[in-house]
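FORM 7B: Structural annotation worksheet

SECTION A. Query
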Amino acid sequence: MNGRDAGREQAGGGGLLVLAVAAGAYSLAQTAVVPGLGQLTKALHTSSENVSWVLTGYLVSAAILTPVGGRLGDMFGKRRVLALALAGFTVGSVVAALSGSIWVLVAARVVQGAGSMVFPLCFGIISDAFPAERRPGALGLISAIAGIGAGGGLLMGGLLLDHASWRWIFWAGAIMAGLSALGTLRLPESATRTPGRVDLIGALLLAVGLTAPLIALTRTTKWGWADARTLGLIAAGLLVLVVFAWFENRTAEPLVNVRLLARPVVLGTNVATALIGFGMFGAFVLIPQIAETPAATGYGFGMTATGAGLLLLPACLVMLVTGGAAGAFGLRFGARTPLVVGLLVAVAGLAVLAGVHHDKWVVLALSAVVFGGIGLGMAAVPNLIVGAVPPDATGQATGVNALVRSVGSSIGSQVAATVLAGSVTALSPLPTDSAFTEAFWIGAGATACAAVAALLIPRERRGADLPAPAPVSDADGVRAG
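SECTION B. Predicted structure
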């Protein structure tokens, strides 16, 4: 057995567990803090507006670092960059757990954003080092974890708040990421590299272009969508992103290969991914809120944060199963088929939820349908991306894909929150039943658009015709440790 085969056998064994725990640590951290925002306001003696930066800082940092991490992995080795990203996430988690000031906590969350690099790096490592027959299933599993982490984070956060303290939300993340960082020593290093320099100007343009709209999105419930500040930040960000694309297309060693993103398979998959994120996170906002709304409203279940998380637990488990099964499905019928089928199932579930969400057992069953479909669809996405780009570009391609899913998720959650907030009045401080119905229909519409975009994705071979720098083998090749 040669070194490459040995590395692939090792990566395909315990390596998948390492990558799964790493992906889980980041996914859980996205939403685990949400149930504790009220406690943070009291514990750190601050305002709810300041506490909102605990989410905003993490979101902005993750958006910027996701494509940067993918590019760095392509340049310097995916295992090496993954270990550094997990170490940064661990440090940020420890500082967050020990913080006694809101702004120390916000700074720690920005550092935690380094964990966003996990997904493009995991996808790249699987593409480089896993046996071909295990690759689709492994890609699907990691992609499913990206989805179930959101619901799992709400559950974990609720349990820790009810039975421990808000600090344990961050200690749990530190433990998972720290163990994963040690586990990366078992992974083989990438033999394929894209040599070059770090595109600092491109990174700065991307940071400004993403930060402005994301800050605007997180403030829409306070400012409103039509506010001059909201529209101004979104317009400014989009203008900078246009400049970023122009600059990258004229740079010899770009942070993001714009021509690669313009390939029909990659472009279509990214459009579908953004819409999937929109529909998925809209549902993740709506279902827990229905569960925690008092039963006196006629539609709420009056559950605790832990109960709301447990209501989503079966859906998360179904999502994990369908995500793992998508690989075999895709091998037989093509990666586009499970994406389309999964999205159509999710559309049906969301449409029924729009009219029937007054019984917790019905909601439990329908949420399993919705997230089972989304899990099947999401798991197909990395297989489509990896199959459409050169091996030495998987990091940046999957990094951009993770970014657009995050942006779609941000828009979806804010639209859902805006619809609910719009139904609140001074006499009725809780959202109305019709507002939930409208929000579910919006999520169903976005997911249906994702299915249409998926149908338009052409079948295409791996992108060998795209010019790419010659691969460079690192001194340690694919050896483990």
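SECTION C. Observations
DSSP finds 19 helices and no strands in the chain. Residues 48-76 form the longest helix (29 residues).

SECTION D. Sign-off
Analyst initials: ____
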